[in-house]
């Protein structure tokens, strides 16, 4: 709650810029899978054009990530300001609300969409055994520069070796990872 309150001026400024530069909704809402696969609504700042979800099918053939995840480094649906927000993970700020509500924690595997989970192999489903987080080992280990299998391995490594100390280390490593903007799309 304290982080959300401290971030309020930045959140307000971002909301105004999104509204002025691309109109439409400021927030993007999407169903994600949380602890034990329970569905919840994830909130992010909208970084894409309004009809981005409908246009995704047109771009599936350009997917740069292996596995059931869709990632495209230079996604044409992303707005100019959205690129900036993504580079520094500022689009994730509304997820502090998800943390406050108890849907997410500060550290944990990133929350997948149900369509991805439906394609998981059995060993990959174990990543749903922990509450999803704003940041994770994947985020501080290369983000989108890692393939899907390595991403899953890092999530399971985190689950298997979880401790408050590990969470603290990941939170500390998140700061330079986000500020550098490396590996973001």
Can you walk me through this structure?
By secondary structure, this protein is mainly alpha-helical. It has a two-stranded antiparallel sheet. A two-stranded parallel sheet has the order 3-4. It has 8 helices and 4 strands, in the order αββαααβαβααα. The protein is globular, with a radius of gyration of 16 Å.
Tell me briefly what this model is.
By secondary structure, the chain is mostly helical. Helix content is 44%, strand content 11%.
| β-strand number | 4
Could you tell me the mean pLDDT? Answer: 91
* Main beta-sheet strand count, sense and barrel state: 2 strands, antiparallel
Helix content: 40-55%
Radius of gyration: 16 Å
Secondary structure blueprint with pairings:
Layout: H1 2-22, E1 27-33, E2 39-45, H2 52-59, H3 80-87, H4 95-101, E3 105-107, H5 114-117, E4 133-135, H6 137-140, H7 148-160, H8 164-180
Parallel strand pairs: 3-4
Antiparallel strand pairs: 1-2
List keywords for this structure.
mainly alpha, 185 residues, two-stranded parallel sheet
